[in-house]
Design goal:
Blueprint (H helix, E strand, L loop, with lengths): L2 H17 L2 H9 L5 E2 H8 L3 H13 L3 E6 L2 E6 L3 H25 L1
Antiparallel strand pairs: 1-3, 2-3
Length: about 110
């Protein structure tokens, strides 16, 4: 296995690991249309600012979100619209599989 293949797998694993948390998925859903400041996310989720910041750091380090300064605030948005497409595709496929499994178990 060459270095490039290993690196791609590592990046992919980091990306999906970042998605493997309900709070981070909620943050992604919240900032999908427009960028938001940390204070907006704290208010929506009703959790502490340090906890929101830690989740945003994971999302930023995995390339899912990007940030910029606006005065004293840090604004966050998705780095790429295709991220939502990936999540929607996963949702659709998982829901289809779960529905089929439930129907088969009911028989």
């Amino acid at each position: 296995m060459n270095f490039l293949q290993q690196n791609k797998r590592s990046i992919r694993a980091k990306f999906f690991k970042a998605l493997a948390d309900p709070i981070r998925l909620e943050i992604i859903d919240y900032i999908d249309k427009e960028e938001k400041c940390v204070c907006d996310i704290v208010e929506l989720l009703n959790i502490s600012q340090p906890l929101v910041s830690r989740h945003l750091k994971v999302l930023r380090e995995s390339g899912i979100v990007i940030d910029r300064r606006e005065g004293t605030k840090k604004m966050y948005r998705l780095s790429n619209e295709k991220i939502l497409d990936i999540i929607k595709l996963l949702d659709q496929n998982l829901l289809e599989d779960l529905t089929q499994k439930i129907l088969l178990e009911a028989l």
